[in-house]
Structures are given as C-alpha cells and as structure tokens.
Amino acid sequence: SGGARGMAGLGVPEPGTGPGPVPATRVELTVSCRQLLDRDTFSKSDPLCVLYTQRPGSHQWWEFGRTEVIDNSLNPDFLRKFVLDYCFEERQNLRFDLYDVDSKSPDLSKHDFLGQAFCTLGEIVGSAGSRLEKPLTGIPGKKCGTIILLAEELGNCRDVATLQFCANKLDKKDFFGKSDPFMVFYRSNEDGTFTICHKTEVVRNTLNPVWAAFAIPVRALCNGDHDRAIKVEVYDWDRDGSHDFIGEFTTTYRELARGQSHFNVYEVVNPRKKMKKKKYLNSGTVTLLSFAVEAEHTFLDYIKGGTQLNFTVAIDFTASNGNPSQPTSLHYLSPFQLNAYSLALRAVGDIIQDYDSDKMFPALGFGAKVPPDGHVSHEFPLNGDASNPACRGIAGVLEAYQRSLRRVQLYGPTNFAPVVNHVARSAATVLDGSQYFVLLIITDGVISDMAQTKEAIVNAAKLPMSIIIVGVGQAEFDAMVELDGDDIRISSRGKVAERDIVQFVPFRDYMSGGPGAGLSMAGLAREVLAEIPDQLLSYMKARGIKPLPVPPMPPETPP
Predict the structure, then answer these.
(1) How far is Cα 498 from Cα 463, in angstroms, rounded to an integer?
(2) Which of 26, 87, 313, 352 has the fewest Cβ atoms within 10 Å of its own Cβ atom?
(3) Which residue ranges does the record assign to the C2 domain (predicted)?
C-alpha cells in the first residue's frame, strides 16, 4: 500500500515546494465500486482505480497510485489501499478515475474510461463512520455506478499505560533520617543501551514509599515491543544532586501488564553490595500496585464517532473599516475580486464545512447601526432573521454578508464579547462531546471591550468551543495577540482560562496578490485551523468524554 505511490513513478516533489505541514496522522483509504459500466463484449469489465492528488495551492493533478486490477467484476472491492498523510487544516483534493483494463500496458489512454469522482479527504473522514459513497460521473448520458471510500486511521500504538508502585524496607541511606526515595525508568534500545523515559516524584523520609500513579505512552516505555527490557533504578534523593543509588531491577511491559500479582514484586538489588557481601539478599522490594492501559484518543476518533463541528462567523461592521463604496475600504465589493473579509471566510469555511453535516452556518455582524430604527448592534444576523441566523453553505454566508453591507450603516465600537457569548450559549447546551463549536471572527482589529471579551473567553474555555480571529487591514493587532494566549494564558478577574481556545492570524501575512493568492489562502487556512484538533481533544480529555463507537454501516445496496 505504501508503495502505491512508487508504482506511479511520480513521487518526486516539485522543486521549491519546501517541507509541508507536519501530518497529523496517516489514513488508509479502501476503495469499492458498485454497478460499474460494462465495457467488455464477452465478459464483464476488469476495473482498476487510479488516485490523483493536488499539492497545496496547485491545480495540477498528480498520480498518487493505482489499485490492482480485478477481473470480470462490476462490483469490485479493491485490496490494495492508498495511505495518505491527513492534515485537518488543509483542503486535500482527491480524484478517483476508473478504467476497464484491456491489456498489460501501463498507459491509461490504452484502456476504457469508466468514470470518475472528486472529493476531499476531509469529506471522507467527516462522513458518518468515515465512509463516503459518491456517484461516478464523466461519461455524458450514462450512469457510471458509485464509488465507496472508507478511511481508517493507521494506529501507531496510541496506548497509554497508568502504573502505580510502592516499595518496602528500602536501604536507609541518610545518616539522620530515613531515605527519600524516587525511581527512574529506562527503556532498552536495539543496541543494548538504555534511554530514560520516566522519573517518579520523591517521597520524603520513608523506607516504605507509595508513589503516585503516573501515565506514560506505551511507545515511550517499550517502543511497542512488549518483551523488551525495562530497567528501573531506585535512588535516595539528596539536595545537592548527588543522589545515592539504592538498587535496581528489570522487567518488561508484558510482565507489568499482568497487573498486581506475585509476579510483580521485584527485589531491588545493588550489584556492588551483592559482590561484596555473601549474605546480601536485597536492598528492599518494589511492588506494582496497579496497572491499566487505554488508547489515547485522536481527533479522528471523535469525528468518526459522529462529533460535528458547528461553524459560526462574526464579521466586523465598524466604521474603521472605511466606507464600503470606496475602493480603499476593507469592505469594498469589487466586481473583479473578493475583498479580504470574503477571502478569509472562504479559506477557512471551505475546509471546516466538510465536518458539518447540515452545512448551515450562523453568520453575525457587529458594530453597525441596523434597520429599521438604526440602533447599534453587536450581534445582528446577516440574513436578517434573528430567530435563525444560519445561512446555507459558505456561499450563503457570503451572499448574506454582501446583502448586509447594503442594509446597515458601519458604526462602532468594536465589541467582541456579545458574539463570543452568543456562541457560548449554544455550546453550553451540548456538553456531551457530540458537537464542538468554532467561532470565526474577522475584524480590522481595534477592540473596545477588552475586559468583557477576556471574561467571555475565560468562561468559554470551559465549553466545547474554539475561537479563530483573522485580523484584516494594516492596524496594530497587539490586543489580538494577547487574546491568543499562546505565550501567556489569558485571565480575567484572577481566573485563568482552563484551555487555550483562541488562535489569531493577521490576514496581511498571507496577502500576495497575483496568481499566488490561492496558495496564500491555503496557508491562511492552515495557520488558522492548525490548533483546532488539539483544542477539541483538550476539551474532551478535561471532561473525560470518550469517542462514541463508530455508527453501524448502512446496509449495502446489493450489487
């Protein structure tokens, strides 16, 4: 499967592409088709599927790989899989072409075309059970059948073990008191050397310590090899750093996994004492009190279990944006190109919509005088419907935004707190992990209600929500950087936000005019969305929410 790219002979990176984003995870795609066209006269078609991908910002398709050919079948389940790097924050376009293979030639033009399907990797992953069914198209006037795509995350040993130990009758090392013991764990490497992987806390003044339970990735403990030696050293802590060695023992992950039992009582041995003293038995014992292992859940586990991302947009309609009828305004609607607000909205929305099944997006404006009476509002619906501010798709949001610009009068001040609290109210009604809310605020950046916004964010950090702020225009965005909380976690009235939920990106960093503008929009989306998977995980973890099991597959239509 990994070699499918090599088969195509086109795995050579373009010059000047540079390193891409670090893939969050690898995904294996399984391809099946139903009711393909029959192109053979005397038997059924012999189908082959070819996968093409695009590089970020490029519209050119590159062959990624091919499945095997399945003889005489209109309902093939291909065995050879495609393994792709999956990045939530990128729009990863895929194209699947099907051919009826008539000869041994690798040249696809020598075979009959059976149809094709386009989608994004996010669309497959974001579908129920990460299973997407699409009609094949491409031959006018003919029904080409359907393609079924299934995405599976490749596990790279995501288990986390939780262990607790105690010790008995350790050697007394201190002249005046008892010892202050701690333990150091090492995993063994292929070459026989050892790498430190965990240190317990120090328990003061006792020869019978009980250490706190600790969690460690199984990978870190044994690199996935359950029979590899794990060495544990026991020390007496000294303030000056010259800790006294009490003794050591070895075990394996397989032994530890048996849990609390007589197998998991270890003699702590000091080899030098053992050599010197004939009657030396040990320097105490260490006992495993408890052992548990569970899989570390990933963003895809939650998406696959049905967690939906709800996307809300809030747009800055304050007068500092400039008069919308003037080309210098950030809100200027040119017949020739999208303005910064529209570009930012499209870049982020195009990716996030794959994870929202109803594709309905609430869209709000703030900082304008709204009809009929001209009062200033900080959370008005762009579609004019206060009871349901949701628009259909990103296209619907753009349309409502452009209509609003003609209806309202840009005013001020720039208050964020009302739209943050608006989304927080929705998020507070679904705390079970079935939904996660993302608020995109697009602003020219001069904020008037900093204290209230900080308080709103600190409160929102307890809820299943994240906030993305895109700053447009040339203002100084110091206040936004403070809200981002990457360096210093945001706080309000002495309360610190329990999670970092804000990501701020200045739009101008991605504005290269001309033909490269598409590439910079992909860069903007990447930067803006990169933190969402970890923010979603931090919420689920803090609340102890496990991903739901994958919903059962719909019964397959019989061939």
Answers:
(1) 10
(2) 26
(3) 9-136, 143-266
